[in-house]
Amino acid sequence: MTTLMSAGELETALRDLGAARYHNRHPFHRMLHGGKLNKRQVQAWALNRYCYQAHIPIKDASLIARIDDPDLRRQWRQRLVDHDGTQKGDGGIARWIALTDGLDLDRALVVSMRAALPATRFAVQAYVQFVREKPLLEAIASSLTELFSPNIISERVSGMLSHYDFITPETLAYFNARLDQAPRDADFALDYVKRHARTPEQQSAVIAALGFKCDVLWAQLDALHHAYVNPGLIPPGALGHDGVWP
């Protein structure tokens, strides 16, 4: 990209990329939301997704450690509070554990992450490493998948409540807070990116950063589909290998 886009054109490019590559288009998610999975497959999704949820505050803490501007640090620090809470048993990670509890998964097994798919762990670590090593502008841009999360949350909650008798509103309480948090965070990050991507090279980099994050989310669903749907090859050590289920 050699031509500088306006802020509006950059936002359009980012939204177009998300519309094409966000993981709500993945077949596994369509099955999850459409009631096409059995309970074991839903358990596998929740257990593996915990790995991602648990690393979000680690990712954000590493980003904060690189920020010189105290105003930006304060703004980004809210993400840590949202996920870790202000006390034990509070915050998004605790609510995700409540989700896995509601699916009859052993809490110690979930938190240990030892039964997660290798590809899940690799994808999550790649995201953390990206945020630690890339320029701050690209690290912030990688969070812009939150632009698209309210729609997938609405689809997920309504679809899962409609189709699975083992799902309750309490099980899905994690998503209630995210309907407000994700748009707030996305609006801030989008404004930051639009103001600070001042060259064609920087604009290209932030678009690529969003593409990378879409790949991280997509890769996790590829792994779930391969292991638990088709062809159903669960790797050693992962949930359900050798017929071992909760």
TrEMBL record:
Gene3D superfamilies: Heme oxygenase-like. Its EC number is 1.3.3.11. Keywords: Oxidoreductase, PQQ biosynthesis. Signal peptide: none annotated. Pfam families: TENA_THI-4. Pathway: Cofactor biosynthesis; pyrroloquinoline quinone biosynthesis. SUPFAM superfamilies: Heme oxygenase-like (SSF48613). The keyword Mitochondrion does not apply. Residues 14-222 form the Thiaminase-2/PQQC domain. It catalyses: 6-(2-amino-2-carboxyethyl)-7,8-dioxo-1,2,3,4,7,8-hexahydroquinoline-2,4-dicarboxylate + 3 O2 = pyrroloquinoline quinone + 2 H2O2 + 2 H2O + H(+). GO terms for molecular function: pyrroloquinoline-quinone synthase activity. It is an enzyme of class 1 (oxidoreductase). Belongs to the PqqC family. Ring cyclization and eight-electron oxidation of 3a-(2-amino-2-carboxyethyl)-4,5-dioxo-4,5,6,7,8,9-hexahydroquinoline-7,9-dicarboxylic-acid to PQQ. This is Pyrroloquinoline-quinone synthase. It comes from Acidiphilium iwatense. The gene is pqqC.
